[in-house]
Amino acid sequence: MRIAQIASFLHKWLALIIGVQIFIWIATGLFFTVFPIEQIRSEHRVREIAPIELQATDATALGAVIDASPHPTRVTLESRPEGSMIVAEYPDRSSALFDAHTGARLSPLNADAALWVARLRINTDASVRTSTLITTESPEYRGALPAWRIEFDEPSKLAVYVSANTGLVTARRSELWRVYDTLWALHIMDWRDHENFNHWPIILVSALALLSTIAGIALIPYRFRWRRRRPATN
């Protein structure tokens, strides 16, 4: 019975110590399984628009961007819904956007240009609630910077992030995503950055949860044996 006493002690007290976090793991895990990740990322809000075809004349502007100083390390000619675009990447890890027809530099985009991109890419007719230039990372956004955060006036409070340098939609954030992100932070016990699950608190709690589970499994044969030997009552 010594083993049963030790197992019972560990199972009971460890469950009391880490029970709240175990409940959080189960509840948040249920949420993650109920809502598809595509819905969390608002992929159903992406507008399906066929890109335009590239023209032979686009190569002229492409050559001008390549020959310009400073010389880019990578140049991409893209066919987008808003037109043919050139994205140039430079040694200092910065990027720039050019019109492929005229060679004119378009970046950094202003608020109106970013809104135009967002409306072309996202399926919404709602008015704009706020439009803010973001220059620092946050738990809600860790994409390319600077970026325009365009929040639409709708129940989901959808915020679309558009890179000011490349003109790409780099993130979509809704109220559902924010709930997901909060629950994810609780799930991985990273309440500040919401992304690190390789830290000592979660490792320790996970180890204690495993030990409590093992102790509970070890108690199973003793519980059944105790039930079989229990005297009958009249």
Written description of the protein model:
The chain has two domains: about 1-35 and about 180-225, no CATH class; about 45-175, no CATH class. It is about 45% helix and about 20% strand. It has helices at about 1-35, 35-40, 60-65, 110-120, 175-190, 200-230; strands at about 75-80, 85-90, 95-100, 130-135, 145-150, 160-165, 170-175. The strands form two sheets. The chain has a four-stranded antiparallel β-sheet with strand order 4-5-6-7. The chain has a three-stranded antiparallel β-sheet with strand order 1-2-3, with helices on one face.
SSE diagram, text form:
Blueprint: H1 2-34, H2 37-40, H3 58-67, E1 74-80, E2 83-89, E3 95-99, H4 111-121, E4 128-134, E5 147-152, E6 159-163, E7 169-173, H5 175-188, H6 200-229
Antiparallel strand pairs: 1-2, 2-3, 4-5, 5-6, 6-7
